[in-house]
Every structure is written in C-alpha cells, then in structure tokens.
Amino acid sequence: MEDLIQGGYVLTADPKRVDFTRVHRWLAEESYWAAGRSYDLVARSIDGSLPYSIFAGTEQVGFARVVTDGATFAWICDVFIDGTHRGRGLGKWLIDSILADLSERGVQRFLLATRDAQEVYRRSGFAEIEGAHRFMEIDRRPTAKAILGRA
Fold it and tell me: Which residues contact 148 (CB under 8 A, 6 or more apart)?
C-alpha cells in the first residue's frame, strides 16, 4: 500500500515507521485488551503482523495491526487512535484503508473484536458473526475478563 494523505495526516503500512515505544504505551497503559502487555510481546506481535500507522508530521497518532494469511482471512486488532486526535474520523479511515488494501490482495473475510465500539466498526461494514456458536477458543490472556467486560 502506498502512503495515503488526508487532512494533514499520513497513513502508512511501512513497518519501519512504527514507533514501538509509543504503541507499547498505548496498548499496555491505555487499552483494556492489552493492559500490562510487555514491550517484548508488543514488539513480537507487530513483527508477526502487518502494521498500519497514522502520523501527524513525525508523531505517530494511530495504529492497527493485521494478522493474516494474505489470501483468505485477516484479523484486525490493536486498533488505537491517540486521545488528542480522536473524533476526526481517523479510526474509520484506518479501518477502511486496511479493508481496501487487503481486499486488493484478494482477502475476503475480516474479523475483529471489540467490547464497546461496535457502532464505529458497523460504519465500515462489520456485523456480528453469524453462526458464532461454531467458533471455539482457548483464551489464556490475563486481560480476558476485562475484554469481555466481566469483573
């Protein structure tokens, strides 16, 4: 994907531009789904994924990563927009750009999970999983209860 520009922001899929320290802080300290995640774990997760970043000048202000086989399936995760840049449509732009980029590669099935932003993702075409009862998991994450909204 070539860099995209919108309203003074740049969206890139260049993994060399990811500010690992900033993304780690967002995920480990400001998200509910990755609270307490170590720097090493964040770095390895980014290295094993397709990272997408939004910049305002040289400052990274948004991030998402995609776990994919590059052909049939993609899981969009760790979506984060810095609080000072929220409310400007950056999250939708990020998601829509990821969908467009991977759709051009032929990917047809996308998955993501959210505790509280369903309406945000519906605007990009996401809906609840039909046949969710067919899916199974083993969830050993220390943040599983927080992710599911359980005390």
Answer: 115
Q: Contact, 102 vs 68, CB < 8 A? A: yes
Instruction: List the strands of the sheet with 59-68, edge to edge.
Output: 4-6, 9-12, 50-56, 59-68, 73-81, 109-111
| Over residues 40-62, mean pLDDT | 98
pLDDT at 143: 78
Alpha-carbon distance 55 to 8, whole Å?
9
Q: What are the C-alpha distances in Å from 94 to residues 30, 41, 89?
A: 19, 23, 9
Write out pLDDT tens, residues 104-126. 999 999 999 998 999 999 999 99
Query: Over the stretch 11-31, which tens digit does the pLDDT of each residue have?
Result: 999 999 999 999 999 999 999
Element (H, E) at 76: strand 73-81
pTM, to two decimals: 0.91
Nearest-5° Cα angle at 75, 70 to 77 = 125
> Measured between alpha carbons, how far is 80 from 100 in angstroms, rounded to an integer?
19
Q: Report whether 64 contacts 78 (CB < 8 A).
A: yes
